[in-house]
Amino acid sequence: MEVKGEYFTEPSGTQALHVFHPAVGIDVDAHRDFTLRFGYDADVVSGATVRTYGALDAVSAATSFSDTRHSFHGGAQLRLGPTAVDAGYTYGFENDYNSHALDVGAKVDLWGKNTTFRLGYSHNFDSVCNVDNKGAMVTERRSLGASKGCFGKTVGLVSEPLAIDSYAASWTQVLTPILLSDLSVTFQVLDGFQSNPYRRVRLFNSVEAQESEPLLRERVALQARFRLALPRARGALGILGRFYWDTWGIKSGTAEITWDEWVHPQLLLRVRGRFYQQSRALFYRDAGEALSYESVGPVGQYFTGDRELSPFRDYLVGFKVAWVRNADERGKVWRWFEQLDLNAKIDLIDYQPLTPLPPNQARNVGLVNALIAEVGLALRW
Predict the structure, then answer these.
(1) Which among 134, 250, 152 is positioned nearest to 193, based on CA atoms?
(2) pLDDT score for 59
(3) What is the DSSP string of 205-226?
(4) Each residue's pLDDT tens digit, 58-92
(5) At 126, phi and psi to the nearest 5?
(6) Which of 303, 312, 306 is nearest to 285 (CA)?
(7) Are 96 and 67 in contact (CB under 8 A)?
(8) Per residue in 350-374, pLDDT tens?
């Protein structure tokens, strides 16, 4: 069983964002070759954001919002010799978004578990609440004002479909007794409504229309990880590199380095640093540039106020401490458990925009633009 709570914040005055994420997971070995898995997690979100993206959004009033997403998931794993097969289902819902997801996966351990291959696939049947803009020109589409009445029979509201297919493959290899590698590739296809139904974008300096993004998006990510144990230093060095690109024109790179140090047989300290940078989407136009949406309008039929589609870089510094106690010759931990893992971590993020006036510009002020804090407890018996 694992219980954890995570808190994320972007502390930016009138546009601050707060997210609390509690989660619990339980694995039950119904048989030596069969495990059942159950879990629940939630996102409790509150904050404020500017509803209309344009040159004036840095000084216009922010709109407060709050919502809670609930997610229940269950699954099973069947182990047949060196092979394990997984299947699961997740149901998530909030006021304006519903999701049903099915996933399957398989792995095989070869050559004394020195080599592991994994394959996975999942499909999401998602629904997004939106204003009924059927028949309206892209520059005339209205934005959603509130989530009240969503997924009912409210006149003027509709449910927009979004299908997500995700494919993953990985290869984990023990290269030497102290060196481990992991290579993975993921491919995802999103087909359906992907805009923020609440967000508006200012066009031609006078028109405010609901954000318009393509219905189809394909994305690929390649990742390599290496982990080197240094027994004399009682530590381990981790290195990660990741490259991503998609059909919306975004390319990104991630580099991360971690160090784990056992300062005591039961006390683990971890420090990590990460660098991330991405390019802009093909249809993104910054409000602070000459060719902004306000000046020249959409790129074809597309325009967005999503910061995640703008070019930016960020730096992350993280710290984690874990107290791990295992059963030994003196007996189980607290007479019940094979292992107890109590941990806490904190991540500090500095976000740097690469254009003059990206969305949510007010959240870029200061050295630390975001903070993630987490406390977790894992009990195994």
Answers:
(1) 134
(2) 45
(3) TTEEEE-B--SEEEEEEEEEEE
(4) 445 678 888 999 999 999 999 999 999 999 999 99
(5) -105, 155
(6) 303
(7) yes
(8) 999 999 999 988 777 777 899 999 9
Stretch 150-167: mean pLDDT: 95
Instruction: Using a pLDDT cut of 70, give the percent of the chain over it.
Output: 98
Phi and psi angles of residue 152, each rounded to the nearest 5 degrees, phi first? -110, -150
Place of tokens 């939630």: 42
pLDDT band at 375 (very low <50, low <70, confident <90, very high): very high
The gap from C-alpha 251 to its chain's centroid, in whole angstroms, comes to 17
Structure letter (DSSP) for residue 140? G
Say how far apart CA 214 and CA 298 lie, in whole Å: 12
Tell me which residue of 311, 243, 252 sits closest to 281, measured CA to CA.
Answer: 311
**Other C-beta atoms within 10 Å of 347: how many?**
18
Whether 149 contacts 164, CB under 8 Å: no
Give the model's pLDDT for residue 15: 82
347: three-class secondary structure by DSSP:
strand
Domain ranges of the chain: 2-380
Q: Got the DSSP string for 115-150?
A: EEEEEEEEEEEEEEEEE--TT--GGGPPPP---TTT
Band of residue 1 on the pLDDT scale cut at 50, 70, 90 = confident
pLDDT, tens only, 307-335: 999 999 999 999 999 998 887 767 677 67
- Asked if 6 contacts 380 with a C-beta cutoff of 8 angstroms, the reply is no
User: Nearest to residue 52, comparing CAs of 162, 203, 213, 215?
Assistant: 203
Q: Which residues pair with 7 in a beta bridge?
A: 20, 373
Domain covering 2-380, topology: Porin (2.40.160)
DSSP one-letter string for 267-289: EEEEEEEEEEEE---TT---TTS
**Given its phi and psi angles, is residue 81 left (phi above 0), alpha (psi -120 to 50 degrees) or beta?**
left
| Separation of alpha carbons 206 and 306, rounded Å | 20
Q: For residue 46, what are the contacts with CB-CB under 8 A and spacing of at least 6?
A: 17, 18, 64, 65, 66
Cα 169 from chain centre = 19
Per-residue confidence (pLDDT) for residue 329, from 0 to 100: 67
Any idea what DSSP says for residue 56? T
